[in-house]
Amino acid sequence: MIFVTRKMHFSASHRLFNPKYTDEENDAVFDKCNNPNGHGHNYYLEVCVAGEPNPETGYVIDLKILKRIVKVNFIDFVDHKNLNLDVPFLRGVIPTAENIAIAAWDQIEPHVTDGRLFSVTLYETENNFVEYKGNR
Amino acid sequence: MIFVTRKMHFSASHRLFNPKYTDEENDAVFDKCNNPNGHGHNYYLEVCVAGEPNPETGYVIDLKILKRIVKVNFIDFVDHKNLNLDVPFLRGVIPTAENIAIAAWDQIEPHVTDGRLFSVTLYETENNFVEYKGNR
Amino acid sequence: MIFVTRKMHFSASHRLFNPKYTDEENDAVFDKCNNPNGHGHNYYLEVCVAGEPNPETGYVIDLKILKRIVKVNFIDFVDHKNLNLDVPFLRGVIPTAENIAIAAWDQIEPHVTDGRLFSVTLYETENNFVEYKGNR
Amino acid sequence: MIFVTRKMHFSASHRLFNPKYTDEENDAVFDKCNNPNGHGHNYYLEVCVAGEPNPETGYVIDLKILKRIVKVNFIDFVDHKNLNLDVPFLRGVIPTAENIAIAAWDQIEPHVTDGRLFSVTLYETENNFVEYKGNR
Amino acid sequence: MIFVTRKMHFSASHRLFNPKYTDEENDAVFDKCNNPNGHGHNYYLEVCVAGEPNPETGYVIDLKILKRIVKVNFIDFVDHKNLNLDVPFLRGVIPTAENIAIAAWDQIEPHVTDGRLFSVTLYETENNFVEYKGNR
Amino acid sequence: MIFVTRKMHFSASHRLFNPKYTDEENDAVFDKCNNPNGHGHNYYLEVCVAGEPNPETGYVIDLKILKRIVKVNFIDFVDHKNLNLDVPFLRGVIPTAENIAIAAWDQIEPHVTDGRLFSVTLYETENNFVEYKGNR
């Protein structure tokens, strides 16, 4: 088994808050990330597919095809968007890195036909990142 | 003369549009960056000071002091903020990388007491960056 | 389960040698790293916590809290220090990347209250790094 | 158990095509990578060894030794080479990242005497990489 | 004046040799880079334009437009190509980083209509790069 | 004119203090960097040479030769060393980044025979760096 990864990029804004919390609770929990007018990030998403190389091509999955799957089903929905307001599959979700990674998995996983989706890793900054392997 | 640089980070959201333009004109010029709900970036700012090393300390400027000057006069105003709505010194300014760099210069330059501010370089993404040397 | 990682930095000096070895043996094994006056590195430590996102916050662990745990229990002891002489929990330990990573785990693990510590990865240089998952 | 990684570099050219395919099939599958005169990459190879630190040295494996093993058995064969024409152990193999990683494993694995080879990760570009753990 | 930079990428192969040299001379001068079957790199090109920000847009030059200029006039000619054999404007040129940078300048400069081309910087590897400012 | 740069690496330890200062003054000025047992860094040095490409080779200076000049005259003296105690040309110098860069210039400049040394840039960390162009 080989693990093949494609890294992609998007820029987005978000605000972290729980509408069931008071303003004080949101400030206490989310601090600067609760700025009402939002802030933003250059996100990087690493999408990893596991499988056997096809002996005809030497590919587990053609990365051009994986790139297109990720673009059409995820990046096009979030790039240059406000993650609280603009993204159908994040409606009602607090857009933490954890929840964005789960959403990325759910958007991408059904479309991977060669090999199977093994993990998605989302970098919110150089110093903060999360990995999800679909094991809910 | 030695050029001493401190690199710092902030995360912010913005929307690029000219209020004098029609919606169609804003879309034509600013494209995805004109999303009404905004998007965002992890910005990196490199602040470069030129001067002679002090023979007593070996420093052109103590980078702890430079870091504090940049934090108090610029980073604290823009980090985890919406650059269109939250920043007094960007009011009425289209927050392109060019204009943010000019604003950073204007905010930081008067406070540099050892050496003189030589340049500010602002990275909006890994692939897009601007440099300003104050020569207006 | 989600894996959440915070990357942090410290600068430190060290010398690699075994006091039970002769000078010749230390030179043969540790080579340049056995310089008696020491040398140093910019170390990066990635601390990974595994757990379920809290449905109220969307966080496995608030990274501001994780950052503080790592700072107070590890970084403050090693940053701008000599790892052979200044660090209580490294006394008598050869400060290889392997042994520093084990010490980081032992210092941090008891303090992680949301989720559980999954791994620590220590970069000594861009090209050399070690990972430890606590499985002694 | 500790996982110790050494990252190394080589520059090489290659062409992706299957000699059993027609030109049209090769173009359809390999696209730009099928350019008859080839193209190339700066490859990075991360070689990870798993084991217990030796209590005498604090090392799982001396990275100077690991570096030498990787250099002599792999890097010297591929650095500044054409992967289709110049490399005995890639003869008849389509030099995709997947197949190069498998070849790296096979070249390096028998020579690791302290600990055991755990994984090889090959970066073809910053955005495309594959990992192999020997589990054929 | 503001300096605006767009970084772009291409992958290519090349061989360094002077057809007027003997094999021995080529080996002595170009060493590993003289491998007859070639080798390759992931090149990065930073294209810097200098000018005044347009007060209507805040842009010196729209980076989407600069990206297109660089793509159409340079990247499309060299990406996934053999620099010795496939590129009309490199015919008869030894494809060192220096000469590729000069060719990039000559290809791009006439097409920059907002501001003026200030420099091109070409990274052959992380450790080797050249800058050209057109001052022949 | 073309500017050709080679980036190199060394690991070293240092302590910042002025022997003419009291302990209190050294603490006030140099803070954590005044730790008596020292600390350390992974330093990166970029050495830039300016000149015309030789029409026979396409090189301003063969980077293999530049690498050797920098290694023999600078890196070999500082790599895996204590910059306060082990380096003849830093004796009596406070080893700030500024002073190390000046020393690097003085060590390297006389040996550059093709083109002329244009600048040395020393990175102490990712966020702190200095550039020197020899203009004393």
Q: In words, what does this structure look like?
A:
6 copies of one chain form a homohexamer. Chain A is of the alpha+beta class and 136 residues long. The first copy, chain A, has one domain: 6-pyruvoyl tetrahydropterin synthase/QueD (Tetrahydropterin Synthase, Chain A, 2-Layer Sandwich), CATH 3.30.479.10. The first copy, chain A, contains 3 helices and 5 strands, in the order βαβαβαββ. Chain A has helices at 23-30, 63-78, 97-108; strands at residues 2-14, 39-51, 81-82, 116-123, 128-132. Chain A has a 5-stranded mixed β-sheet. The longest helix of chain A has 16 residues, at 63-78. Chain A is elongated. Chain A starts with a strand and ends with a strand. The A-C interface holds A 16, 18, 20, 29-31, 93-99, 101-102, 126-133, 135 and C 1-8, 53, 56-60, 62-64. Strand 5 of chain A pairs antiparallel with strand 1 of chain C, so a sheet runs across the interface.
Provide keyphrases for this structure.
30% strand; 136 residues; Tetrahydropterin Synthase, Chain A; homohexamer; five-stranded mixed β-sheet
Q: Secondary-structure element order of chain A, as H and E? A: EHEHEHEE
**What is the CATH topology of chain A?**
Tetrahydropterin Synthase, Chain A
For the residues shown, what is the average pLDDT of chain A? Answer: 97
In terms of quaternary structure, the protein is: homohexamer
Which structural class do you get from the secondary structure elements of chain A? alpha+beta
Strand order of the largest sheet of chain A: 3-1-2-4-5
Poorly predicted runs of 5 or more residues of chain A: none
Strands of chain A, total number: 5
| N-to-C span of chain A | 23 Å
Radius of gyration of chain A, in Å, reads 16 Å
Largest interchain contact: A-B, 23 and 23 residues
